[in-house]
UniProtKB/TrEMBL annotation:
One of its GO terms (molecular function) is electron transfer activity. Belongs to the flavodoxin family. InterPro entries: Flav_short, Flavodoxin/NO_synth, Flavodoxin_CS, Flavoprotein-like_sf. Its cofactor is FMN. Residues 4-140 form the Flavodoxin-like domain. Keywords: Electron transport, Flavoprotein, FMN, Transport. This is Flavodoxin. Low-potential electron donor to a number of redox enzymes. Transmembrane segments: none annotated. Pfam families: Flavodoxin_1. NCBIfam families: flav_short (TIGR01753).
Amino acid sequence: MEKAIIVYWSSTGNTEAMANAIADGVKAAGGTPELVYVDNVNVDELLAQPAFAIGCPAMGAEELDESVDSFVSEIEGKVSGKNILLFGSYDWGDGEWMRLWVERMQNAGANIIGGEGIIANLEPDADAKAALEAAGKQLAAF
Ligand SMILES: Cc1cc2nc3c(=O)[nH]c(=O)nc-3n(C[C@H](O)[C@H](O)[C@H](O)COP(=O)(O)O)c2cc1C
């Protein structure tokens, strides 16, 4: 893929740090990452790609942030066959928001890269960063 678009939302920087680790993996694989805040996504450009990443922390009660939820609703009918890497940070939960999000995208016909979302408890540690970089390499390979 010419460029790998990584869409994200983050309030305190943890999911943003995850997005940066994915971008490092894309670069290590020779790709060009494009980090885009969810409010600034060009949906047509995004959906022209065979694969992309979306990141959002657990918010509400195991929910997506509202801006990401409306973005996902906007693309949901158009992601069949797309390869999507999902990621996000959480704190006190058990990752329920991510399991629900994966299920939602799979119901829309998307293939989730790695089979499940990548989650990190608060700030990504070295293990989480390594997993994110590996996923970034996979993303760049599409
Ligand atoms: C309003 C609000 C709601 C949250 N809801 C949850 C939740 O349901 N489950 C959970 O595990 N963490 C929850 N968190 C914790 C965040 O997911 C966690 O702080 C995360 O690291 C924030 O990521 P960010 O730095 O990318 O914004 C919530 C935090 C806030 C501020």
